[in-house]
Amino acid sequence: MALKVRYADGKVGEVEEPVEALEIYRHSTSHLMAAAVCSLFPDTHLGIGPAVSDGFFYDFDRATNFTEDDLPRIEAKMRELASRDLNYQPRILTREEAVGLFSKKGEDLKVELIEERAGQQLSCYQLGDLVDFCLGPHVYSTGLIHPDSFRVMSLAGSYWKGDEGNRRMQRIYGTAFLTPGDLQAHLAQLEEAKKRDHRKLGRELDLFSVSEEAGPGLIFWHPKGTRVRLVIEDFLRQVLLRRGYEFVVTPHIARNALWRTSGHYDYYRENMYVFNIEDEEFVIKPMNCPGHIQIYKSGMRSYRDLPLRFAEFGTVYRQEKSGVLHGMLRVRGFTQDDAHIFCTREQVYGEISDLLDLVLFVMQAFAFDKYQVELSVRDESRRQDYAGTEEDWRMAESALVQAMTAKGMQWKRMEGEAVFYGPKIDVKLIDAIGRPWQLSTVQFDFTLPKRFDLAYIGPDGQPHQPVMLHRALLGSIERFMGVLIEHFAGAFPIWLAPVQATVIPIAVRHQPYGRQVLEQLANAGLRVEIDDRNEKMGYKIREAQAKKVPFMLVVGDKEAQSGQISVRNRTEGDKGAQSVESFIAAIRGHIEARSVRP
Amino acid sequence: MALKVRYADGKVGEVEEPVEALEIYRHSTSHLMAAAVCSLFPDTHLGIGPAVSDGFFYDFDRATNFTEDDLPRIEAKMRELASRDLNYQPRILTREEAVGLFSKKGEDLKVELIEERAGQQLSCYQLGDLVDFCLGPHVYSTGLIHPDSFRVMSLAGSYWKGDEGNRRMQRIYGTAFLTPGDLQAHLAQLEEAKKRDHRKLGRELDLFSVSEEAGPGLIFWHPKGTRVRLVIEDFLRQVLLRRGYEFVVTPHIARNALWRTSGHYDYYRENMYVFNIEDEEFVIKPMNCPGHIQIYKSGMRSYRDLPLRFAEFGTVYRQEKSGVLHGMLRVRGFTQDDAHIFCTREQVYGEISDLLDLVLFVMQAFAFDKYQVELSVRDESRRQDYAGTEEDWRMAESALVQAMTAKGMQWKRMEGEAVFYGPKIDVKLIDAIGRPWQLSTVQFDFTLPKRFDLAYIGPDGQPHQPVMLHRALLGSIERFMGVLIEHFAGAFPIWLAPVQATVIPIAVRHQPYGRQVLEQLANAGLRVEIDDRNEKMGYKIREAQAKKVPFMLVVGDKEAQSGQISVRNRTEGDKGAQSVESFIAAIRGHIEARSVRP
Question: pLDDT averaged over consecutive 10-residue blocks of chain B (598 residues)?
């Protein structure tokens, strides 16, 4: 379904490409919102109003604060304007005309934007009474914006151009989709995401907390959260050891000399925490790479030692503004499942190929079956801005592309998205409610081996520079945990569940048998609890269900006499009586298979 | 054997108690050394010369530096003076006489000491030409100092009164024992300790390193060291989980507010690293306790939840002068095997009793069969200086004493050695060459529960304050690793060994079979390597032996044909051929038993 649009030069066209069409549609809805706001609140001045990844926003400058109650009024006014089928009317202006026009309207911020703009040919769009400085394109008219395809969402504070030194603005967020059905799906996803919010579930399931007294963005892992974390770490550790990785441990602090050599001190300084020891500056590590390099450099390396694959669950700390912190998903301290591979050029393809297998294996283990891959490469027009030789980039890119092709993977090529030190692959996992999460990354580094003068002795007896790869599978264990909680809505698969089964004695007299069952299960290595409170069975079952415990094992007279347990599972309810041994065998099967159900 | 001594008042006596006798003997040998130094180098002025834990030292003030070559001359002069059987001649002086005497001799530092001293009755001792300001007692005469019972050991720089702002001194270390046999044993221990130096073995066995570029006192755990560390951590984790501990993870940084509440900011500030985030001061954690307390406080606690035992391998950072850092034994960053127990008063005895069992169990697991226990209690004359009530101290001390008694443990009561917040037990393990290492500690804390206002709801429905215990078994994993390396002289027991077996193919044609054996062992979960270099078998065996690998598995024609391996172990040599399966069974037996040999 093509979208009829009007370009700034007045030409009319059609846009087929859905991503492009959606962006135009949202941008136009943003103008529609601005028109509605200015009509309702004439004392409002305009900032900017772009489309963003899940909708759009407009930043306004107004002495009075907007309130939540204004939002439905704005939305109603937008519908009214939309129903009038107003044109998005472009006009080409000279710089002088543009300045004159917006000065007259008292739109200082627009004048500022115009003055920053190069070139003489500028444009604005008129929509009803609203005139906005804008490059377009826009939809042809508001009749193309379905009245049930948008929603005014929320209010937030912001700063002009995102700079805290500038004027405070009031941002109104909205969202829009090409069809009302798409909007409904999005709102349903938001509703579902709210129920799954890892901060809410983290509290209810007693998994983690953040402490005001200790400071924001710092995660305290409670016993139950730590159980899940340790299962994840143990699993990864076994997987990595089988694949020829070696674990290392490196300190959290180091002299700034290390970070000067690595270049972080010059290019990453604003993200690092620094302090002094004996009048010398030290850094709390924001990355593990320079530490792994120290270990590489601690001895002579020969081609016979390569590839070396150093892995660490390395906790790093980075500057983040307190305003952007969000539960486990955006924090100041996090533990990367980090690894660095040092290899010869001949080994690169094999390493990349193994890495992609590993990413797919780990992803499946955690029940993510959909993913998107992005290959970030150089901007070919700015080759001089990148580290590494022509041959480095060709070798790296070809290894990445060949390995993905061999696995039958689909990917999106992101031109110019590579960082300056090498190309990379990012893997975004799609969670149970369709949201993408960037987790795994495989990244070439053409600069650190040079900066640290890394070498290995080749078969020719001469020193050579190894190729260095950064890679993470989960990214950060904190963030991954947050994603997992939301992915599973707190109902972890049995192998990950902090409590795998709760024993529920029906009455006080069944407690001794209940404890016997508990012990038997604990000795089998299962994570089990007993609910021996003096409460009704139904209440205890409901509570275990609310805690998302996979199995409830009810024991009463019948079970005690027959030496059995009555098994309920959280998804299917009552499964009848069975022996403890057969239950253990069944649950072990689930654990080994890492099955998601029951 | 009693030691004949002369007290400052001129009285002669006998000292039987060996610790006291040794201290007097060493102090007198220190005076003997000072007499020898002043006789050889008349431009020398005196600082102080006390007995210390493994000998004595004397700090001298002299314009010219002493050299290593001076040490044998000093020792020879000491023997000469000793052979003259000079008396240690005391003399009581008034303050004025003392100042006059030492001023005349130009001994400014002695005058400074005299002036700081309260009271009118002072004393000095004369030994030949040496007059020293001294409280005594001393041995009766130098004839009592056996010429083969002492040794001048080494030179070091120091500062007057240990303060870097003061005059630089030259320290000469010596050692002395009551018998020549004791001295010989000590020197042999030192010689053995040198061979076992964990820094040397750490390098040779590729276990860890310290990086100049990253800074001193920060340990980089290499793959082989990390293997050992992970075995230790996994072992402890399993032991603790079986004993009802729950693991937690807490961040390495926190607001200074947390450390103000805990009191560390006021009383421990000089040991902490601080830095800023958004103009607020943060602290790199020197302790894990406040973090565990945050988790305790994250929810309501009932008496039914207690005891809560939170464990963490928590990495902490503390200020240490670069001059005192020493390999893994004294560092700036280390990982405590830390735990905090929150319990009711009624649960205290049970917890202490379990803790002592745990200490003994873990000690034996790591092949330490000797230990010393110290119980540190209040100075009863300064009761007002301690936190906690009378009843707290009585309850705590009685629980400690009763539990030790019940286990048949011996302990030394250290009056006044308790820290202000509660009594404690320290356990010193005696290593393979007889050196004590303070590792385990169990410590009551009467202050943090109050400072953080900790509570649990009792059966009476009212809030009560829990008892809090700090405890560590290994102390610090870094330090423990250093001790283990020296204890085992690098030859780790099989269950800890970073490489448990090396497969050694005799010739190139045996490599495929060797790799097959390697794979079989690796699949059985063993840590194995293959030495497939083109070197002679004897050379490879010697190298594996030097790397202290417990088993060398030689494979040649005979073994390949019969599907066997020829087993050598590092202590007993050739053990003959056996099947891979029977070797796996045997090594698994060693691992499960945590046996030290072979």
Answer: 91 93 96 96 94 94 95 96 94 89 91 85 91 92 95 94 90 96 94 94 97 96 98 97 96 96 91 93 97 97 97 97 92 98 97 96 94 94 89 94 96 93 95 92 96 97 97 97 96 97 96 97 96 94 96 96 95 93 96 86
Give B213 to chain A, closest Cα distance, Å.
6
Contact flag B218-A298 (C-beta cutoff 8 Å): no
List helix spans (H) across A366-498: 390-406, 448-451, 477-487
Give me the residue from B206, B258, B322 closest to A278, CB to CB.
B322
Q: Which neighbouring-strand residues pair with B282?
A: B255, B275
Average pLDDT value over all residues in chain B: 94
State residue B597's pLDDT score.
74
Q: What is the pLDDT of residue B116?
A: 87
**What gap in Å lies between CA A386 and CA A394, rounded to an integer?**
13
Residues of A tagged active-site: 289, 318, 336, 338, 340, 424, 470
Q: Which of B247, B258, B282 sits opposite A223 (nearest CB)?
A: B247
Q: In what order do the strands lie in the sheet with B528-530?
A: B528-530, B501-505, B551-555, B564-569, B573-579
Record: contact A209-B252, CB cut-off 8 A: no
Residue showing tokens 């009755």: B121
Query: Catalytic: B424?
Result: yes
Residues in chain A predicted with pLDDT less than 70, given as ranges, are 598
How far separated are the first and last CA of chain A, in Å rounded?
42
What pLDDT was estimated at residue B297? 97
Contact between B567 and B583 (Cβ < 8 Å): yes
Write down the H helix ranges in A55-179: 70-83, 95-104, 108-116
B198, B229, B309, B340: the catalytic one is: B340
Q: Which of A218, A241, A340 to mutate to test the interface with B (most CBs of B within 10 A)?
A: A218
3-state SS, residue A433:
coil
> E-strand spans in A34-75?
45-46, 51-52, 55-61
Q: Is residue B70 flagged as an active site residue?
A: no
HSE (side-chain half, CA atoms, 13 Å) at B522: 16
B2: which DSSP letter? P
Task: Compare CB distances from B252 to A211, A248, A333 and report the shortest one's residue.
Answer: A333
* B277 φ/ψ angles, rounded to the nearest 5 degrees: -130, 125
pLDDT at B136: 86
